[in-house]
Amino acid sequence: MIDPVFILVLFVIGGVLSVALGLPLQYEKVPPNWFYGFRTRKTVSNPDIWYPVNRVLGIDMVRLGIVVAVSALIMLALRHSVAPEPAVIIVGAIGGVMALWMVIHGFSVLRRM
After folding, report:
1. Is residue 57 classed exposed, middle or buried when 0-12, 13-18 and 19+ CB atoms within 10 A define those classes?
2. What is the rounded CA–CA span in Å between residue 95 and residue 60?
3. Residue 1: pLDDT band by 50, 70, 90 thresholds?
């Protein structure tokens, strides 16, 4: 079985990666494409929709990355007080809920466009 501490370190790396991928979207540096961003027919076909929706997605990605990385770092700091397996589940649940929020929020913004 994989060491839970290693998984928490991967959560930190994933959080930092989420921030790094979210910033270009937040600052509207990514043009419409089918590989990176909030990709639907509606967003890809219209830059006036792509940029606002992906700006919101970028902001949410940065928030997710920060929260997941900080949560994982806290769990790593508390690894002698909190069992590693529940710590991984807690950080994973936080990331999962935030990722679900990103999708719901993105479609909510898209629907208003």
Report:
1. buried
2. 12
3. low
Q: Is 38 left (phi over 0), alpha (psi -120 to 50) or beta?
A: beta
Degrees to nearest 5, angle at CA 49 with 47 and 53: 115
Cα torsion 49, 34, 14, 30: sign: negative
Count other C-beta atoms under 10 Å from residue 30's C-beta.
Answer: 19
DSSP state of 33: -
This prediction's pTM: 0.91
| Tokens encoding 31 | 């043009």
Model pLDDT, residue 79: 86
